[in-house]
Amino acid sequence: MSTNNAPTRIYLHESELPTQWYNLRADMKEQPDPMLLPDGTPAQEEHLYPVFCKKLAQQEMDGQTRFFDIPGEVLDIYKVYRPAPLCRAYDLERTLDTPAKIYYKFEGNNTSGSHKLNSAVAQAFYAKDEGLKGITTETGAGQWGTALAEAARYFGLDLIVYMVKVSYEQKPFRRAVMETFDAKVFASPSDTTNAGRAILAADPKDSGSLGCAISEAIEVAVTNEGYRYVLGSVLNQVLLHQSVIGLETELAMQKLGEYPDVVIGCAGGGSNLGGLAAPFLRDKITGKAKDIRIVAVEPASCPSFTRGKYAYDFCDTGKTTPLAKMYTLGSGFKPSANHAGGLRYHGMSPILSKLYHDGYMEAVSYEQTKVFEAAKLFAQRETILPAPESAHAIRCAIDEALKCKETGEAKTILFGLTGTGYFDLVAYDQFNNGTMTDYIPTDEDLEKSLEGLPQVG
Amino acid sequence: MSTNNAPTRIYLHESELPTQWYNLRADMKEQPDPMLLPDGTPAQEEHLYPVFCKKLAQQEMDGQTRFFDIPGEVLDIYKVYRPAPLCRAYDLERTLDTPAKIYYKFEGNNTSGSHKLNSAVAQAFYAKDEGLKGITTETGAGQWGTALAEAARYFGLDLIVYMVKVSYEQKPFRRAVMETFDAKVFASPSDTTNAGRAILAADPKDSGSLGCAISEAIEVAVTNEGYRYVLGSVLNQVLLHQSVIGLETELAMQKLGEYPDVVIGCAGGGSNLGGLAAPFLRDKITGKAKDIRIVAVEPASCPSFTRGKYAYDFCDTGKTTPLAKMYTLGSGFKPSANHAGGLRYHGMSPILSKLYHDGYMEAVSYEQTKVFEAAKLFAQRETILPAPESAHAIRCAIDEALKCKETGEAKTILFGLTGTGYFDLVAYDQFNNGTMTDYIPTDEDLEKSLEGLPQVG
Fold first, then answer.
1. Strands B362-366 and B323-328, sheet pairing
2. Residues of chain A neighbouring B248 (CB-CB closer than 8 A)
């Protein structure tokens, strides 16, 4: 029954763990447009100091330095759960009867159940190193909040998490696991901040959004001595830290004598896709692999790339952040309450936005019932219960493999399996019993949410 | 900060995966006492055929064959999630300030979140190979049921699971994940069997026990054409399959030039401890390592080894099975409803019972708040949220490491981290908010539950 010529899972040796993060911006032909202050002038590094740690502000603004050393304290934790395995989905290939080879990089082997820990550890370390007392953040489905709780506890930092209310209610155990790492967790919008109170005043039943939770977390960070704010996606610094995914994958594929024809990642704010695809986007940009395809997969209910506008926008609903040039649905956008997984941010990484705009990437969107269909098939064949986020990439990888079945092409497909779905059983239950529904925003919905875009840039 | 001289995690290469299971009985000086029929005569292999697949019945009864080949189809699935890592708990060591070296074998990297998949895959394969239509089983905390759901679905078998009612209600998502693998799950005692109805007639509010769920699952297996019953612990065949844990651990430690001074495993029915310790128990029996200590850790609320009786007893509450000689609390024993994790079986593996009785093993018990204290510390330092079951072993490993701190001995401690606690957040929540309680049965409780022991053997 076994047709193995490559191992089913490849674990690099600990000594092969990357010791530097890779900064894709250093190889981009054109830099992403700069962050702007509300008055339309470009933000400088020091403008970020009230919100971010200095080292992180520096990483955020540095488009030139190709490699950043990973601090030893960060490597110590990386070694507890990394290198992460590159897996060959032999059984899924057999089930699909495809000539394609399907590989996935699995990032779920830690308590956060996702790749989010890669950046959480880095950001918590720099906060500790700067002598801070605590950090604040938002979380949607809860992977980022859990990862940061792990990292903050490890370094002895206080952590305050604002969790999107609809997810807080759908996933009660996320709070419990964050509390196991001593984090304080509030459902957002909350009555603990001006931003939250303003949103609740407008609609006491507001179910929350990442943009709103960000406003609350930033407000707490800037009004409390010794606190800074950290974010799990979208930012340049996060893509930098997540490059560890791509670097490991590149090395593991080299060892197999493989190179992907297509790289697929789910995309909410872009942290996973940007990390996984970084070396491959470099190869495409530099012409080393000009035919490689990089595909972002997003939910049809939150279609930033496929239906958003490439424009300057606020990163939060309260409009307190600098402006970023990105694909956006408008900072007030919220996916409908029936949306089960993460990938619920209104915007998208400025780096990936620029590359998508310049034609280096593709994007597709799927409705969630199609996504869970793929999730269930994958779980049944590969013994990993995927996170709904990750299952977007699985859906696309399966469809690419089925295209190969039609054409007879033996393509090499690589996708990012960002995490596990142990906290998403309410959604799985809905899918299993047939009560899961889909939702696609209408053109009118999107036009309305884009109305308030700032008039700059 | 890093003091590493061994890697933090060691993954054997796929080519180093054991291709045979090891049968500890072949090296025991005295065999475990034989299974008896209700009339007191020894059971023969063919007596087991109505309940077990023939190949599994053969493995159950064979005390002579030292190694059994692992079928290729089983190895194909093992390769998806094995070899499992052997980890050095550097940060826990630093936190405890102990001279001891702490290693753990981590078995949680699959959807069942535990080592249970090792035997589930084997048992489902033999059932498929024998041409069966389906299998039935019981599950307590749900790890075994989930593992078997994965395995059954993989081989295209129907699966019916009876889940101990108190766990079914404490862990609603276990049902959802088993259903994702198309299993049918009933809370036990149920009204679907004579055994369940009899128990409900005696007490409509009966919260269930493994012994009761076993009675229900066996009844369904023997009364439905093409079905057999499978069990996740206690049996000799299960310890055989689980030896893959110990064999991998032995090889990984050899590569490090290490050998444990003490091997620690949680013990409910003995599947994990029996598997992990198999090569080390062999070394103790044969005199190759006569000073090695093997420690079983059990809940104070279900203390089979530490307070049970070594006697013949039924394996189920309905008294439908042959009799096994084992440490038992009586087949009607139930841990109190506040008991959070698994490890709730009234008996214990006959192999381990014999070895414990003959002085090759030690046993300790802990109350659950002490166990969760260790679980939380471990999660915070090692980024893995342990299952409550596994945390019993962690508690004991920490206490052994603290003894080393007192004595200054740099012992090598090895324990089994059997799985993850993603489905145990209700219990973690209780621990975090201070509402978790302990329970130790009184001597009178135990005397009463032991009253009904069969008068044979």
1. unpaired
2. none
Query: What is the distance in angstroms between the Cα of A31 and the nearest Cα belonging to chain B?
Result: 36
What's the token pair of residue A138?
């938002």
pLDDT tens digits, residue range B391-446? Answer: 999 999 999 999 999 999 999 999 999 999 999 999 999 999 999 999 999 999 99
CA triplet A418, A420, A424: central angle to 5 degrees? 120
**For residues B147-152, average pLDDT:** 97
Rounded CA-CA distance B110/B420 in Å is 9
Q: What is the pLDDT of residues A162-192, one digit of tens each?
A: 999 988 988 889 999 999 999 999 999 999 9
> Which residue pairs, CB below 8 angstroms and at least 24 apart, start in B406-409?
B408/B99, B409/B99, B409/B100
Look at residue B1 in the predicted model and tell me its pLDDT. 37
Pick the CATH number of A117-231 from 3.40.50.1100, 3.30.9.10, 3.30.565.10, 3.30.70.260: 3.40.50.1100
ipTM: 0.93
Confidence of residue A457 (pLDDT cuts 50, 70, 90): low
Domain B9-18+70-113+236-450 classified CATH 3.40.50.1100? yes
Question: Which pLDDT belongs to residue A397?
Answer: 98
Mean pLDDT of B361-371: 97
Q: Tokens in use for B258?
A: 């290490």
- B288-292 mean pLDDT: 96
CB A14 to CB B8 under 8 A?
yes
Domain ranges for chain A, please list them.
9-18+70-113+236-450, 117-231
Place of tokens 């869970």: A372
- Is 80 exceeded by the pLDDT of residue B2? no
In DSSP terms, B139 is beta-bridged to: B163
Which stretch of DSSP H or E encloses residue A114?
none
Quick check: bond before A189 cis, omega within 30?
Answer: yes
∠ CA B65-B70-B72, rounded to 5°: 150
Query: Which amino acid is residue B445, in one-letter code?
Result: D
Specify whether the backbone of B74 is left (phi greater than 0), alpha (psi in -120 to 50) or beta: alpha
Q: How far is B183 from chain A (nearest CA, A)?
A: 11
pLDDT for A2: 39
Which residues in A lie closer than 8 A to residue B81 (C-beta atoms)? 9, 383
Distance CA B171, CA B208 (A): 14
Asked whether the predicted pLDDT for residue B25 surpasses 50, the reply is yes
**Inter-chain CB proximity B2 and A72 less than 8 Å:** yes
With both helix axes pointing from N to C terminus, report the angle between B172-180 and A425-432 in degrees, rounded to the nearest 10.
Answer: 50
* Prediction pTM value: 0.95
Confidence of residue A293 (pLDDT cuts 50, 70, 90): very high
| CA geometry: angle A264, A266, A271, nearest 5 deg | 105
What distance lies between CA B233 and its chain's CA centroid?
5
List beta partners, residue B167: none
Quick one: closest CA in A to B372, which residue?
A180
Per the CB < 8 A criterion, the answer to whether A132 and A140 are in contact is no
What DSSP letter does each residue of A243-289 carry, written as one string? HHHHHHHHHHHHHHT---SEEEEE-SSSHHHHHHHHHHHHHHHHTTT
Q: Which chain B residues touch A94 with a CB distance below 8 Å?
A: none
Query: Do B117-231 and B9-18+70-113+236-450 have the same topology in CATH?
Result: yes
Which residues 6+ apart lie within 8 Å of B287 measured at CB?
A: none
Cα separation of B273 and B302, whole Å?
Answer: 16
Residue A76: C-alpha distances to residues A17, A71, B399 (Å): 11, 9, 25
